[in-house]
Amino acid sequence: MAIIIAAVSMAVGTGNIWRFPRVAAEWGGGAFLIAVTVALLIWAVPLLMCEFLMGSRARLGNIGAFRDFMGRKYTWAGGFMVAVTLGIMFYYSVVAGWCIRYFVVAATGGLVPDREIAGGATFGQQNWEAFIANPVETIGYHAVAVIFTTAVVYQGIKGGLERVLKVFLVALLVILVVLAARAVMLPGSAAGLRFLFVPEWSLLLEARVWLEAFTQVAWSTGAGWGLLMIYAVYARQNEDIAVNSGIIAFSDVLVGFFAAALVLGTLFAVAPTPEFAEEALSSGNYGLTFIYIVDLIATMPGAWIISPLFFLALALAGVSSFIAMFELGTTNLMNFGFHRRNAAIAVGIVAFLFGIPSALSIDFLGNQDWVWGVGLLISGLLTALAILKYGVNRARAEINETSDLHVGQWWTVFIRLIPVVFLVLFSWWIYQSVRDNPKTWWNPLETYSTGTMVVQWGLVLLLVLALNKFFSERVKDGPMTRRHDDLEQS
Amino acid sequence: MDAELIFWLCLFVGGYSLVVGALLRIALKNKGL
């Protein structure tokens, strides 16, 4: 049960609350949900099963698991996966800090406007702009997120992560269900729910809907992040890989439904006009959450309790995902011989320092989100390639050894399909970047450009390739390491 | 709420809940819970 709780907390993050409702409403409601369900089956569930198998068999972090599944020549692939997830962690701690800040301010009554706002700006807008321009606050709350997480990971799996994540997940689910139920009962909320659940069938024929659904699933479920690989290291070796992977993927979307009912229901019930609600949805993740929702909740009866509960849910979701990324860094460091406590402190210091640029500049943060978000697709591809190299039928047989649900031949087909899906998704993101920046797409110093992605990935790739021998020799041996060497010799 | 919305809401939320519930049941049964 502990592995399910940890893995669901890992998968359910801020994206479930602020991205899923927005994207679902924009891309056809029920039609998008059908596409999401297909994407779960083709991308998320097979990849989560790969990660679970790699972690539970290798009993090592990502670098060691790739070494033992692909061979010593490919140890760099694990290094690349770690770099991508750490690239995300370095700004995610800042985002987790924002959520903590909004919870603290809401809980102390600071998100209910007590004065008239001069000029055209709303209360939420002024509050957000004042916060984001104040480095003492942004760096301070980033530090709070890092220090709290360091303390949790420092305590170990049983005494730290398991204890904290259990409380966080239960609290998050209770808050989301209560707030969603309240939102659904508001007069006018049905308009928002229609956006979410009723399909616009014609959109199923649009390639963009499918691309958005696959992207949402790749980012939200944690498939390809390498995080489940880490939690699997600490799980019992006979854990049911197929069943647990299914629970993680489907419950991630289920939680997204509740978050979407809460966000869209409230938005359409409280917004003065449907056009205003649609404008809020098109204002991006941060605009929707930290400006529009702040303003709208402030006008509701019971805002004094709804506002802190909403931001508490967001903070719990953010911090629990941040804990998983932090643990990924710690476990990989421990495989090089570090004691957990020293590894946790080292990751904490690095996370704090590398997070500072994102705390100081929202443009830098957005750019890193873009670079490493698309980079996750590469991690997903590498995971599938590791299993293809290991032997996809052999992997399926090993999954079936521990599973109550028989994994059929479909799984091997989907794993072979992942490189194709990757190619389509990846090309689309690159095309978008070139299309949106026709003059500057090649420039690595330009935000959201193809150049910045290629340069950052390229530097990381060169680094992990240069360190391949070091990684391969210095990461401790696991139960598969010897067997793998024997296989290479034979 | 109109009938069409209730139908789709029940289908998606109910369908996903059933899948998660059934898988959780298998997972918990394996642990003797």
Protein traits:
heterodimer; A: 490 residues; mainly alpha; 23 helices; globular; B: 33 residues; 1 helix; rod-shaped
Q: How far apart, in Å, are the first and last alpha carbons of chain A?
A: 40 Å
Number of helices of chain A: 23
Derived from helix and strand composition plus strand pairing, the structural class of chain A reads mainly alpha
Envelope shape of chain B:
rod-shaped
Poorly predicted residue ranges of chain B: none
Please name the two chains that share the biggest interface, counting residues whose Cβ lies under 8 Å from a Cβ on the partner chain.
Answer: A-B, 22 and 21 residues
Shape of chain A: globular
Radius of gyration of chain A: 22 Å
Order of helices and strands of chain B: H
Q: For the CA atoms, what is the radius of gyration of chain B?
A: 14 Å
Order of helices and strands of chain A: HHHHHHHHHHHHHHHHHHHHHHH
Biggest sheet overview of chain B = none
Strand content of chain A: under 5%
Largest sheet of chain A: none
Rounded to the nearest angstrom, the distance between the terminal CA atoms of chain B is 39 Å
- Mean of pLDDT of chain A: 92
Oligomer: heterodimer
Average pLDDT level of chain B: 88
Content-based structural category of chain B:
mainly alpha
Q: Could you characterize what this model shows?
A:
The complex is a heterodimer of chains A (490) and B (33). Chain A is an all-alpha fold and 490 residues long. Chain A is built from 23 helices and no strands. Chain A has helices spanning 2-11, 14-18, 20-26, 30-58, 62-70, 75-107, 123-132, 135-154, 157-185, 190-197, 207-220, 227-234, 241-270, 274-281, 284-298, 303-334, 340-360, 362-390, 392-402, 409-436, 450-466, 468-474, 481-489. In chain A, helix 1 (2-11) crosses helix 13 (241-270), helix 4 (30-58) crosses helix 5 (62-70) and helix 6 (75-107) packs antiparallel against helix 16. The longest helix of chain A is centred in the first third of the chain and has 33 residues, at 75-107. In chain A, 56% of the residues are buried. With 33 residues, chain B is an all-alpha fold. Chain B contains one helix and no strands. Chain B has one helix spanning 3-30. Chain B is rod-shaped. The relative contact order of chain B is 0.11. The model of chain B has no long low-confidence stretch (mean pLDDT 88).
